[in-house]
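Tutorial sheet, problem 5. The two components below are modelled jointly, 350 residues in total.
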Amino acid sequence: MELDDLIMQKIASGDLGALAEIVDRYQETVWRIARRYCGDSHEAEDITQETFLRLLSVAPRYQPRGKFSSYLITIACRICLDRSAKKAPVLSNELPDLADRSPSAEELREQQEREEMVNLALASLPENQRLAIVLKYYEEMDYASIAAILQVSTKAVDGLLTRARQALACRIDQSGGGSPE
Amino acid sequence: MNCGNLSNKLGRYLDGELAPSSESAVRDHLDSCPACRADAEHQRCLAAFLTSSPIEPAPANLTRSILFEARQRISARQGSSFDILVDMVGWFRSAGRPLRWAAASTITFGILIGVMMGRHMASPGEQIQAANQSSLVEIYSLDFLSESPSGTLSDRYLAMVDGTSRGEE
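Model answer (structure tokens):
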């Protein structure tokens, strides 16, 4: 049995120290996925918190099959999808205005523009395609892992990623200045 | 391999998901086809663009807020008698047959003992109470009310005392 599986057993008995250990190990991963998926830090914070709190309720029924990290990411992805179903994504084309024009501020602005463009492009994708892109590019997962998390076939993952790439390229080209080429 | 075949496999090739034999076929085609090479380069740029903006780390207080909320939920769960019942039912379901029989026998035995003890302890008390209640009218010297006409307040009071004593027996 893996260490994470043993920790899950402790969480099942209400051991907060064990939960703290899991949070410490996987918080950044869950945060990154949530943050990339929803493009908003407050929302990402809620998703991350909900993911770990859900461990409390599922821990008594947890059966170690495969990697724990995939199990946790699956929970995070489900929460992302559930939240998307409840509310439409907020697409804003407005960029934050920076009054300070010093060189460092200019760099910061460029960074923010790029970030905003990536967020907008990702937000324009359907939920499953967005999750596939997040798991592929930001978590560097292979197709089999993504398929297991999204509960689809590897062929379906290929299809999701192909359509997502086409849509992203169009979106980035349309927004101008941020062409990937 | 033609350009149509390649476009179906390009994504998997760039993601390192192709079998070695298909991979070399794609590589050969890309070497000979400038248009497909441009497509491949476009996809590489897209990937680079997507990953070019680093994401900020998780907020420093996130761990604390997760654990605070978890503590609240655990406390609430421990305090709920319904959850205790659910836990017991869960234990009963997961326990083996001998353990189930042992638990069921213990509970039944406990209930039987409780009923027997209850009966035994209740008997003397009931007798004393009955004796006391039968003489309530005498104890409180309410005999003088027995001649009151029916329907009067005194008659009702006497009926109430009498009725109460009967109801409690």
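Marking note: The radius of gyration of chain B is 43 Å. Full credit if you identified this.
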